[in-house]
Amino acid sequence: ASHVYSGRCEDGKELAVKVLKSSAEVMKEFVGEIGIVSSVEHKNAMALVGFCAERGKLMLVYDYMRRGSLEEILHGEEKECKGSRLDWPERFKVAVGVARALNYLHGGGHTKCPVIHRDVKSSNILISQDCEPKLCDFGLALWAADAAAQVTGDDLAGTFGYLAPEYFMHGKVSDKMDVYAFGVVLLELVSGRKPVSSGGPKGQESIVMWANSVVQGGKLTELVDPSLPTDGDNAGEMERIALAAALCIRRAPHVRPSM
Predict the structure, then answer these.
(1) Residue-level pLDDT at 197
(2) In this predicted model, what pLDDT tens digit does every residue of 124-135 receive, in sequence order?
(3) Candidate list 63, 119, 154, 178, residue with the active-site label
(4) Is 63 an annotated catalytic residue?
(5) Helix (H, G, I), strand (E, B) or coil at 101
(6) In order of start, what are the domains of the chain with their CATH numbers?
(7) Which residue in 116, 115, 117, 137 sits closest to 126, CA to CA?
(8) Whose CA is closest to 56, among 31, 33, 24, 88?
(9) Which segments of the chain does DSSP mark as H helices, in order?
């Protein structure tokens, strides 16, 4: 378990401090996260400011994002949102930024071994004041000897609603599981829906199941959040994002696109 606290340096710089309760398993995750995130340099991936490991406390220090996470902005109560709801140009900017971060992690321009994040979700995407997304929380991330390599996981980790079928059912780990989770995030951005919700028709509680039924009906525009204006360039961008999401959430990993 971990808790995140806000802090402030003497020069006024705001920071987020992630504090983990030490154990053998958590220490392994802690060291792994430091090893990966310290090698990542991309404007859409959260940079590690510092870390501390003493007196049974493990701490990771990152820049503080005042607007909070994409999950809070899209799905939180109005009073919880740190800033206005995202309009379409902002949602599109978030989608492109996260795509660029994942492309980088999966080997596009990365100087070291590719990385599989394994926990891509809206709560792990922080939003800066100028709406630049920052992919964070590399606690479950793994190095991959090959960007398309399949490694069988020891046990399931990640978040329900974002887990790719091949991982959920067979424990198979590859960069395609990040692609699937990114598809779920795209669906959240374009539709405004949560990954899993108790309301709605039976069998469509999952955003993926709902989206697949809409796509099979050939009406991509029905995926779009009705609160978003669909005039001008927006309509074309929304349809392209909806199509990209549909490709990313395909059941078979080999037919999903690469980032």
Answers:
(1) 84
(2) 999 999 999 999
(3) 119
(4) no
(5) helix
(6) 68-255 (1.10.510.10)
(7) 137
(8) 24
(9) 24-37, 70-75, 88-105, 165-170, 175-191, 207-216, 233-248
